[in-house]
Design a protein that fits this description.
Length: 150
């Protein structure tokens, strides 16, 4: 049965995931390295992992299976989940796929290198209502597609 895994640290769409999960009766795992007040509900499994690099990512990647869904902005985690046959959705509603993950990893690595050399500075645009709406629509569509495939 399909489950949803949320890479919860810095995830702005936890409540939206819960809304979709409740509509489809899907269990969600909210994974982070600090206690989270929300979301709450009978379908929610809150997992607090120890501090450390990639501990939450490792917890998710070790448990996710084909036809599960991962919600993350972390591109390396997205790649690990795709390798296992899971569907992956970014916070703004953009899916990571087998076809797009290689380019996403390459761009991430290039930006890291450019930041380290001082050629670019980090600039993350704010999370908008349009992003939230796009995410909600994309997650609903992804859940329906995964249910049909499984």
């Amino acid at each position: 049965m399909t489950e949803i895994y949320i890479d919860a640290d810095a995830c702005p769409v936890k409540d939206e995931v819960l809304r979709v999960a409740e509509r489809h009766n899907i269990k969600i795992h909210v994974v982070g390295n600090a206690w989270m007040r929300r979301p709450e509900g009978p379908l929610v499994n809150k997992v607090v992992v120890p501090e450390g690099p990639d501990v939450a990512d490792d917890w998710i990647a070790d448990r996710i299976e084909a036809n599960d869904i991962c919600i993350t902005g972390d591109i390396p985690l997205a790649a690990r989940c795709i390798e296992k046959g899971a569907a992956v959705l970014g916070h703004t509603g953009k899916p990571f796929t087998q076809d797009s993950i290689g380019m996403a990893l390459a761009v991430r690595d290039l930006k890291t290198q450019l930041r380290e050399t001082g050629e670019i500075k980090d600039h993350h645009p704010g999370f908008t209502k349009a992003d939230r709406s796009r995410f909600l629509s994309a997650l609903e569509e992804m859940v329906r597609a995964v249910k049909v495939a499984s």
